[in-house]
Amino acid sequence: MARKDDLTDELLIDGLGGIDGTSGDDYWSHARRPLACLLFLCPLLILYETGVFCLGGEQPELIRNGADHWMRSWLSHAGLAQTLLLPAIVVVGLLAWQVWGKFPWRVAPETLLGMLAESLLFAFALVVIGQMQDIMFRHSIAQFASPPFVTEAQAATLVSMQSLPRAISFLGAGVYEEVLFRLCLLPACYGLFRMLCVPHKQAAVVSIVLTSLVFSVAHYVGPSADQFSAFSFAFRVFAGLFFAGLFVLRGFGITAGCHAAYDVLVGVLLQTP
After folding, report:
1. Residue among 71, 104, 83 at smallest CA distance from 183
2. Residues with Cβ < 8 Å from 269, sequence gap 6 or more?
3. What's the pLDDT tens digit per position in 100-127?
4. Whose CA, among 133, 230, 259, 267, lies 20 to 30 Å from 38?
5. Between the CA of residue 45 and those of 4, 73, 167, 235, what are the distances in Å?
6. CA distance 266 to 85
7. CA distances (Å), origin 175, targets 50, 133, 169
8. How many CB atoms lie within 10 A of CB 7?
9. How far apart (Å, rounded) are the C-alpha atoms in residues 90 and 75?
10. CA atoms in the 13 A half-sphere facing the CB of 120
11. How many whole angstroms separate alpha carbon 248 and alpha carbon 259?
């Protein structure tokens, strides 16, 4: 039987979650496997990359989200500026994970439908939590009242943007922000703390909190940064914790699906800048 410390390593480094890891033969294990994550997210990647190509015109950066732009910039500085390189890295990375883990090369349609249902359920839960937090902030003292998430100019740009380009942008944010902050940064932080001999549980907690703070701060960095507010910063920290917990417990695919569904629900259907 695996020791609890070994299970903690499995949760954070593999990002597969659950006490049973991926060795079980039920839906909860299958949904965490790399091949299931890849097949579930491939439609989002294809829609996003195709949408950026078709709708972006001469300024695709207007549709690309921040995490996508940052990772492409890093690749470009390394002399790797091919348009499809980043999605190819994501696909190859998940396939390599599948091979390394020696997982079965089959995914039942019911697994993908279950992942979709979980993604929508968790996205709706996050919307409800956000609304509750908004009510709490609005009833708190004046200096913590909730100003807009973005500047007036940015809000006007987003509102004037057609629904389809906005939806495309949000789909990419759901995938690439989770690739950057949860699939890459979270296990890397955990591995670093373990190298520094930080105990397993402390390393896991600190990694989750730290990456959630970085996730929130990242929204206020760069030329398209949002206007800082106590409400937006606090909510994004909580959202980072929410996504990190979901990543550990339910895996990368459902986390990215939840993130994309939440962004589309709030940014397109509810028309919230």
Report:
1. 71
2. none
3. 999 999 999 999 999 999 999 999 999 9
4. 267
5. 36, 18, 13, 26
6. 30
7. 14, 25, 10
8. 16
9. 13
10. 5
11. 15
Count the alpha carbons within 13 Å of 14 in the hemisphere toward its beta carbon: 25
Lowest mean per-residue pLDDT among 13-22, 61-70, 86-95: 13-22
- List Cβ<8 Å contacts ≥24 apart for 7-10: 8/200, 8/201, 8/204, 9/194, 9/200
Query: How far, in Å, CA of 183 to CA of 251, rounded?
Result: 9
Helices 66-77 and 163-178: crossing angle, nearest 10°? 60
For tokens 């696909």, the residue is 91
Q: Are the beta carbons of 39 and 107 closer than 8 angstroms?
A: yes
In terms of residue numbers, what domain contains 62? 4-269
**240, 106, 91, 251: which is closest to 183 by C-alpha?**
251
Q: What is the 3-state secondary structure (H, E, C) of 15-45?
A: CCCCCCCCCCCCHHHHCCCHHHHHHHHHHHH
- Strand, helix or coil for residue 228: coil
pLDDT in tens, 224-257: 667 888 888 999 999 999 999 999 999 999 999 9
Distance CA 265, CA 260 (A): 8
Contact 238, 244 (CB under 8 A): no
* Cβ(268)–Cβ(167) below 8 Å: yes
Total domains in the fold of the chain: 1
Residue 1: what pLDDT?
45
pTM of the model: 0.84
Q: C-alpha angle with apex 34: 177 to 31, nearest 5 degrees?
A: 95
- Residue pair 150/227 in contact (Cβ under 8 Å)? The answer is yes
Can you spell out the DSSP letters for 190-212?
HHHHHHTT--HHHHHHHHHHHHH
Q: Tokens in use for 175?
A: 């995938």
In total, the chain counts a number of residues equal to 273
Q: Are 226 and 151 in contact (CB under 8 A)?
A: yes
